[in-house]
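Input record (Table S2, row 291):
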Amino acid sequence: MKSGVVVLAGKPNTGKSTLLNYILKEKIAPVSSKPQTTRKRLKGIYTEERGQIVFIDSPGLHKPTHILGKYMVEEAIKNLYDGDVLLWIIDSSKNLTEEDYTIYERIKNIKKPKILAINKIDIVNPKRKELINELNNFNSIDKMIPISSTTGENVDILLDEIFNILPEGEYLYDPDLLTDSTEREIVGEIIREKILINTEEEIPYSVAVLIDDFKERENGKVYIKGIIYVEKESQKKILIGFKGNLIKKIGVESRIEIERFLGKSVFLELWVKVYKNWRKKEEAIRYLGYK
Ligand SMILES: Nc1nc2c(ncn2[C@@H]2O[C@H](COP(=O)(O)OP(=O)(O)O)[C@@H](O)[C@H]2O)c(=O)[nH]1
Ligand SMILES: [Mg+2]
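Output record (magnesium ion complex):
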């Protein structure tokens, strides 16, 4: 049997969390088209006949503009040095940017097998010439595999490749586990994802969700109270929406997904509160569980 740790690397929005959810066949990682959807390091545990792969999905490597961003990037960089295999993911539907090159510079000398997953081939021709030519520059990459995290194309080939590289070993985690995150953490991320999907501009970045209460009632229903923190009064107003319409929509979408995840019926209560400039405050970042 084989086992080991695969660290996902890549700039925001290249599809790291989507790939993890696809492989696990369960949505444990939040996904949206907004950068920085992933704020915390998350482990996804994949077990099958050949063995066990522990994936580490971390916040994307980007240029930080505030203290929270700085912690996220530091965490992502630290993660690069962990694990047995580095899996770098790029978005083939877009041109490579300076951020992709910065990531290559960071990983090229790390002494570990490196796989490049060229993602989103469902929306682009993988033979796109310019991209192929550019990828030839990345000569410390051991293997390049074009994939689609949404359709799953070539994900089996990627898994074959990872199992080929991994060392012989026993399970690192209980094979029934999909993640080491708690139900509370995942529920908080589901709510944050629904906010990200339903809001624009600075709101997605200014939001943090704290699960304040999580208990199973005698009737079998799970009662969950989530507090949504924003940085300004004006953001609170936008998030609540006209006659409370937006927060209601977010509540309904979150509840449906939480019920599917927990396999139980849920009563979800959401509160929006202002925590002034929390992303710039060390104690706030800690309180909200980001450090
Ligand atoms: N068409 C297409 N879209 C994808 C693919 N993988 C991810 N996406 C989309 O890209 C966006 C970012 O995905 P996400 O997994 O959150 O990226 P992350 O920031 O790297 O974790 C989301 O809107 C996804 O639905 C893919 O293979 N094909
Ligand atoms: Mg992500």
